[in-house]
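User: Second chain of the day. Same drill as before.
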Amino acid sequence: MAAYIVLFIIILIFALLIYNPGKTPPPPEEEEKPSDNRNKEAEAQKRADEEQKAARERTKVQLEQRAREKAAKEREAQQKAAELETAKKALEKEAAAKKEAERQAAEAAAVKAEAEKKAAEEAAKRKEEQKKREARKKAEAEAKAKETARREAERQAAEAAAQKEEEERKAAKQEAKETVAESIPEIPEYPEFSHSRLLEMGLSDEEAREFVDELITQIENQIPLIQAAIDANDFHQMERMTHSIKGSSTNIGTGGVADLLVDYNTYLKTGHDLPLAKAYLENLKIYLAKLQEQYR
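Assistant: Same format as last time:
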């Protein structure tokens, strides 16, 4: 805004310098001598220049005064506008704070009312559920008493039947054991397992023991499969299961499980005596336990 005021003052000054309507040319005088005329003209021109300069100065002063007054008025107006804006914002802030306080109070009242309503509903619900639970417990107690009496009667009958069955099973098992003991040839005892073959191949004792540990895991995994084949009376599957661990054990060393698996697998290629196959499996478990104790 100040830039526009300065520009206006400059344009007005130039206009006054170019055109001055307040000054009229002097009336023509009678002819005089050329030298007198020149002197008079010079004096007149000097006076005209001085008057024009004074008029420009007066105009400049007036314009500057008006510009200062206008700028002061504008500053005053801006200050008043700022004060009004500050007061307006303060009122708006106060109104907003009041409105927020009212909103929070309303929300708190609504929350309190809702909480009281829920508490009343929950209390009524708990009372109703308590009645239902009591009725249900009573019915369940009656039903449980009846069921307990029925189960007790069934249990006693089942225990009697189971006891009789167990006695018959034990008698049959004892008879079977006596028959098997009479028919199974004696399995020889084997020397302690040794991983000498791996040592002969150039492996260190620590490396050889790692291979033995893997063999133990392999036998542990195969025993349940052999047992399943025995339960199914599948001699071909028994032969396959023992063949794989026989090869692993004999490649590692001699004695113990290695010698037993050689005899076990050799028998299963042609033999079909289930009690003997079971006896070999039981011995395999025994020698596996010895191997675990020896290397783990």
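The first helix runs from residue 2 to 18.

User: Great, on to the next one.
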